[in-house]
Write a structure and sequence with these properties.
The complex is a heterodimer of chains A (101) and B (485). Chain A is mostly helical and 101 residues long. In chain A, 76% of the residues lie in helices and 0% in strands. Chain A has helices at 3-23, 27-51, 58-88. In chain A, helix 1 (3-23) runs antiparallel to helix 2 (27-51) and helix 2 (27-51) packs antiparallel against helix 3. The longest helix of chain A is centred in the last third of the chain and has 31 residues, at 58-88. Classes of the chains: A mainly alpha (101), B mainly alpha (485). Chain A: Belongs to the complex I subunit 4L family.
Amino acid sequence: MNLTSYLALAAILFCIGLYGVITKRNAVMVLFSIELMLNAVNINLVAFAKYGMVPNISGQVFTLFTIAIAAAEAAVGIAILLALYRNKGTAEADKYNSMKG
Amino acid sequence: MQQVTEIDWDILAPELIIMIACALLVILDLVLPSMISRRWIGLFSLVAVVTAGVWIVTQFGHSPVALLENTYRLTPVTLIWKLILLSGTFLVLLISLGEDQEEFAPNSGEYYYLLLAAVLGGMFMVSSADLITLYVGLELFSLSSYVLVGIRKRRGDSNEAAWKYVVLGGMSSAFILYGMSFLYGLSGSTNLANIQQYIVKAQGTYDWIIYLSFFLMIVGFGFKLASAPFHTWVPDVYQGAATPITSFLSVVSKSLAFALLFIMIGVFDGIDEGWESIFLPTLMIMAALSMIIGNTAALRQKNMKRLMAYSSIAQAGYILIPIATLNKLYFPSTFFYLFVYLFMTIGAFAVIMLVMRQEKNEDMKAFAGLHQRSPWLALAMTIFLISLAGIPLTAGFFGKMLIIMGALGMEHLWLIVIMVITTIVSYYYYFSIIRQMYFRKANTTRRIRTSWPIGIAISMSAIATIGFGVFPEWILNLVESLLFK
């Protein structure tokens, strides 16, 4: 296993996440897809920290920060989704279209 | 740059003031009985923002230093950014204090300390010298502003705006972070100065990584800047958020995104190949698209907040021009325009908020006959609008002139032509509001109720908009004395 395979895995994961954010109709799946994108970054960082051109620890430290922040972001996203679900009674993301102009 | 190993509390004081105020207010909100009005929390946060701002003014002329293992730096540029952020927050706090309390959740204390948390993240971000600090600061700002957009949790449109903002904001953070991970991979360091050196060395052999990371980050920045073609979230979020938050997003969040762009441009600066032929043209195309799409889409808007949203997309395009052409007037013209944009935008939003609150109507027709009802308010709104349109004697005119003068020196004529044409197009929608105020009959003769904080905010913004138009050298001298000493 060399660096390229890890980078390819991260790239594929990132693209799946992006595809999910754009096409998924269920709002929870949209949040999952954002997490996929952020985890792709983590794979990238850890791979660079181990097999990169200048291997060192700071990539893994960066990963700890991104994991923590991604968790906070998911919490905020779910909280907003709950409030939205109470108001609209649906978790279908394409029903959230009351504003037009 | 001088390295400081022990923590110098003096240098970090503005951030510490905001942080302590934020933590104190969280506890106060918890222990205070619920009968006590949460306006006190708002007043306290206003005091904290003013104190931090005054402290930053005393730091003017401080020699550049790096703190905390070289992850935090104090330079003249970071001081200017923080001044912009804090002045924007100050005005937003003033107009929030004047807003009807029922507009927000019953206990609106959280509104104020989230605002402080957001500005704290912004202040850390502008003075970061490390990818990790940069990212944490940016996310502290973003997460607080997601909640702020959705703070009216019983209203469907507010929730929907927050949902759109959190999804697209999260996606843009992922793009920025993915770009950053490649920069780390290239240099093996998260320090911005180290990364810059490695990029210069790596060009030629690892060009594709440099380009990839640049374009990934540009997608993310495009979202945060609210510039076309990444602008689709802007009208919905601006419409759904409470008006003070809309002005916060359009001023403070945009300034912060520009600060981020400045920092990253500093990182990519050493590249000779691709800089002139790929990076700058990308920014120019974004600027041109923002001006065209923003100004033409605003023409058919009847909802005032959506109109201001498209107007702010167009303004992002104007401010991108000095950065995209990287001319001699790059620093002064960007800072001048951002300062002026701050006052005229928040002023306009404050008037819109007052009119909308009384009329219970977001339509442009709510402004009909404002001149007969509240002449001073109509006059202030006229000043803000003609400044946004860029008519002489206002600060907006001088800002646009600086941008055009800078771009002329670099021979990017097509960009200037687009700017002038779209500015003329923008006269149509700005003047249609003025037409409503002066040449349409009012439905009622009731005056618009104002309160003192909003009165102060509107008069400060109006005075600044006219004052910086007549004496633009005040800001320019300040920026110059800070930067070129």
